[in-house]
Design a protein that fits this description.
The longest helix is centred in the middle third of the chain and has 28 residues. This protein is mainly α and 227 residues long. The chain is built from eleven helices and no strands. α2 crosses α5. About 7% of the residues have low confidence. The two termini are 38 Å apart.
Amino acid sequence: MKPSRKEKRWKLFWFLKFPVYFCALFVMKNILPPCTEMFLTLGFKSVTMDDIAQRLGISKKTLYTHYSNKQALVRACVFDFFNYVTEEINGICQLSKNPIIELHDIKMFMMKHIKNEKISPQYQLKKYYPEIFHELSDKQLDFMIGCVSKSLKEGVATGLFRANLNIPFIARLYFNGMMGIKDQRLFPADIFQHSQLMSDYLEYHLRAICTESGIAIYNTLQLRPHE
């Protein structure tokens, strides 16, 4: 059903009243998602502003009205995707029945987002945009330390994780391992499939910290049909 004349007038009124808001909304919905997809699948170095303008169906001049250069666009895409991932993970944490299922569901969520990666986004970001990479790494560290520490405390309190865990140490060790399996020098893509690395690392992590009750829950997850 077509919007009425009154609805059109209201939309025009709000657009004229809050142009900055609508501009930001347009960018988030129409520019950042396709750009992020291109960067993650083709590489931060390989994708040019010309490629992006062509993909979006706009002129490069129009693209530059939103982002002064490619680095600004890369930064916007990186942190928009980071915010999306953290929101999804927070949602999983709120709904999960226990920290073991929580870690498993987070792993499954992340695997859905890396299945189409043909390159290592982290490697390219570190090489070509080191400032953005280090800023992102700091945010990832802060988020994951908080998230994993909370999960570990809950696991200890419910008897699923060993009571003698050094939680600050384990939380940082887990973060270091998750970053390490993305290192192409250590785990080259022609030998290791990243989704399998994530599964193997999670199993390594959980079998090191779980009690017998925790291992029993983890084993039931392994019996689930492929998700």
